[in-house]
Q: What sequence folds into this?
């Protein structure tokens, strides 16, 4: 997966150019640097700096990032940037595994959604869209479909590209693509904004809620045992003991040793939260998601990942103590967590519905109280979904706000 560029990038989308693309400053707005800014270069494997150069060994993509970040004036100060929703400033990429349709058929389906032209070689198919971005369809030996299967690899995307991504998913489904037990979805977030503290925050947040997260996403026992294992307890212990101050400290905690030359296929990659990707290519990978060709589910998964990443970046600290899992209150507990992440209000109502639908219990009440939903109300516990008291009653919530318990959810 590629490190995401600025949506207005004028350069080659597989490389970051300091004059044309944004730097990874904290919560950076798109046009914050000047063409005259000179990049600072650091050689790999120095993991303590925000600048990295990586190359994807598959040969399908390569990119380099050279940090050059300049604030033009006080209007773009970090304090001002925090006023915007930070999850919408993060860049990401996604890999969607499918069966049922050939790679050529998938490529033409993508073209029907994003325009541009189709090309291909021995490595797979590529669609270059009207913005010059490359959507790839590659083979994956783990998929059950043989020649009638393929992994859709997105180009660098921004939050504003979610509608285009949904159109691609819908087009793939119409072309015959489907999901089965062999398919999954991997979402990568630009890791260049992350320092030791924010990476540690993210790890601890996910570890604390991991059982709830796995249940909400319906991750099968087979995938949990092989392709998206839970966060390693030994890694958490090393992280707690080291109190990392640099990314090199996190690197040593992740691998159990100093690994200055991480490889793409290191066995540590097969965890739901994959930091090998951060040290190899500069992205943090989330592998928890089952395969799907439902556009709404894909959007919900991306929003969840971006909200988790944004919360980790904004937090000063986090607790790693595992949360007790109670199936009877799981829907309420996870809804509280989603609200705490900022997935609140009408904009994220559909995301909450998809993320809560696999859980038992009430989204609005904790304990023995039953749902009191009005006719036509939703099941996500949002205002108006329940009866007279609704989410504003016993759940301790406010109109458009998180319940009081949300403060302890993360």
A:
């Amino acid at each position: 997966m590629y490190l995401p560029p600025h949506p207005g990038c004028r350069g080659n989308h597989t490389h970051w150019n300091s004059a044309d693309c944004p730097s990874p400053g904290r919560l950076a707005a798109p046009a914050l640097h000047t063409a005259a800014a000179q990049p600072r270069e650091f050689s790999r494997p120095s993991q303590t700096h925000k600048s990295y150069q990586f190359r994807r060994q598959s040969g399908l993509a390569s990119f380099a990032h050279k940090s050059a970040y300049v604030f033009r004036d006080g209007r773009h100060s970090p304090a001002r940037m925090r006023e915007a929703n930070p999850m919408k400033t993060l860049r990401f990429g996604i890999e969607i595994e499918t069966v049922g349709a050939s790679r050529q058929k998938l490529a033409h389906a993508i073209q029907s959604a994003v325009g541009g032209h189709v090309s291909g070689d021995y490595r797979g198919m590529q669609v270059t869209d009207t913005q010059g971005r490359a959507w790839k369809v590659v083979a994956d030996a783990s998929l059950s479909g043989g020649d009638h299967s393929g992994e859709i690899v997105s180009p660098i995307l921004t939050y504003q590209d979610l509608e285009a991504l949904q159109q691609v998913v819908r087009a793939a489904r119409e072309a015959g693509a489907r999901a089965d037990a062999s398919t999954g979805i991997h979402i990568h977030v630009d890791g260049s904004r992350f320092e030791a503290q924010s990476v540690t925050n993210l790890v601890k947040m996910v570890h604390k809620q991991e059982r709830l997260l796995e249940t909400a996403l319906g991750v099968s026992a087979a995938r949990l045992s092989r392709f998206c294992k839970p966060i390693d307890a030994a890694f958490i212990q090393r992280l707690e003991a080291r109190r990392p101050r640099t990314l090199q400290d996190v690197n040593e905690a992740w691998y159990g040793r100093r690994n200055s030359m991480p490889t793409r296929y290191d066995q540590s990659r097969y965890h739901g939260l994959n930091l090998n990707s951060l040290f190899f290519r500069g992205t943090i990978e989330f592998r928890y998601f089952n395969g799907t060709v439902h556009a709404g589910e894909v959007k919900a998964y991306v929003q969840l990942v971006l909200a988790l990443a944004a919360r980790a970046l904004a937090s000063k600290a986090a607790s790693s103590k595992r949360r007790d899992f109670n199936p009877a209150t799981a829907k309420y507990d996870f809804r509280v967590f989603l609200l705490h992440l900022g997935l609140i209000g009408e904009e994220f109502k559909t995301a909450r519905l998809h993320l809560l639908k696999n859980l038992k219990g009430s989204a609005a009440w904790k304990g023995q109280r039953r749902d009191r939903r009005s006719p036509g109300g939703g099941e996500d516990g949002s205002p108006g979904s329940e009866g007279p008291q609704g989410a504003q009653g016993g759940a301790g919530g406010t109109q458009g706000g998180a319940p009081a318990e949300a403060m302890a959810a993360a």
Q: What stands out?
A: Residues 196-217 form the longest helix (22 residues). The two ends are 28 Å apart (CA to CA). Residues 327-408 form one domain.
